Amino acid sequence: MTGISHVAPILGIALLSLTACDSGPAVHAATDAQAPSDAVYINRASTSGLEEATFARLAETKATNPAVRSFAASLIADLKPLNQQLAALIQSRGMTPPTDMDQRHAMAYQQLQSQNGPAFDRAYLDGQLQELTMVIQAFQAEADSGKDPPVRALAQQNVPVLFQHLRAASVIAGL
Question: Which domains does the chain have, with CATH numbers?
Answer without folding.
Answer: 34-95+117-175 (1.20.1260.10)
